[in-house]
Amino acid sequence: MEDKQRKDEEKLEEDRLRLERQNKLKDRVVNSGFLVDNTKALEESRKQKQENFKKNLREEKKKYEEDLQIRLQKIYNKPLMFESCKIY
Q: What is the pTM of this model?
């Protein structure tokens, strides 16, 4: 009878330890960086990159148009070839 009671107590202790180890392992796995759902962060990063790209594209287009206007203005203001020739 004592042996049975001692074995039951040992089994309960083993089960408690097993459950404790299982919970510790579960916590490690759940909090692991590999299993964290980072789709939201990736989506935010992708949106930010797209916004930056569009912003840079708009700035480059604006610079190009300004440069084009300056060049066209220089061309319009430049005298024609026959106007610049002096005939004696």
A: 0.49
| C-alpha 74, offset from chain centre | 44
Those residues with Cβ within 8 angstroms of residue 29's Cβ, 6 or more apart along the chain or in another chain: 35
21 and 55 co-located in one domain: no
Q: How far apart are CA 50 and CA 59, in angstroms?
A: 14
Give the start-end residues of each E strand in 2-53: none
78 close to 71: Cβ distance less than 8 angstroms: no
Q: pLDDT under 50 in the chain at which residues? A: none
Same domain? For 17 and 45 the reply is no
pLDDT tens profile 26-41? 888 877 777 777 788 8
Q: How far apart are CA 19 and CA 13, in angstroms?
A: 10
Number of domains in the chain: 2
